[in-house]
Specification:
single chain, five-stranded antiparallel β-sheet, D-amino Acid Aminotransferase, Chain A, domain 1, globular, 3 domains, 292 residues, Dna Ligase, domain 1, 11 strands
Length: 292
Amino acid sequence: MMQEKAKYVVGILAMESFCLFEPALCNNTIDAFDNDVDKLISNLNDNNYEVDKYIIGCESGVQFYDKICNHLNLPYSNDYTLSEARRNKYLMQEAIRNKGIRNIQQKLCDNHNDAIEFINKHLKYPVIVKPIDSAGTEGVTYCIDESHVINAFKNFLNKENVFGIINKQMLVQEFLKGTEYVVDSVSKNGIHYYTDFWQYEKEKTKEGGIIYKTVKNLDLTSDKAKIMFEYVKQCLDALGIRYGPSHAEVIWIDDENQPCLVECGARMHGSKGPLQSRLSKKYSQIDLTYDV
């Protein structure tokens, strides 16, 4: 889809171990596994590429994209001081907590004993245990008792995630009972425009894992969508997102009748989301991201 907008698309690969976009969709690709901006610029120049704009492709490139924008002082940069909070799920929740926005009660834990002590003092089962910087539902575990918590730590602590990063700690969070939605947005100069409103249906595996079942594209003009977007705008501001796409997963909490952020990716909706959007609305988050 990006090739339809740009004359020539060069995919910059920020991680050797993982890539969430299809390099074959680009005219060419450049490896930047060391995340060295000067080396990347030199490589682009050596290939006679005149870059019109940099656009974040997927989760694995979020922080390198921020680094490029900051290094080159690009006019469409996001707040660089909050770059890590846009990837680290613990810091993300702390950033919105600091702004007084409804957030998830949580603790970063080194081992299962630390986690169980926190749960017994501050939460109640079920709870969620997950890595702090993975993607999708990898490592996200629905725990109904201590044995599930112990197994979650056994299965994922000190193990390599999809990005090739070792999970040195695990995040324990309260379980939010409700329906999960997604608000996709594109921002320009700190003004946020929402492009899509989705509803997730997920199911639990017998091991406590969580997998996607269905995704529905919903009416952007509904009352629920408007409430969700007003909430998400506060989260985007708290995370320093001023330009470009975002993908916010939000639970509508049943017993509170209000939304709460699960996590927000400072990048476009993955998989076939933008294509489905274009088929139904004649435009997509990718189109708007390029245009801003």
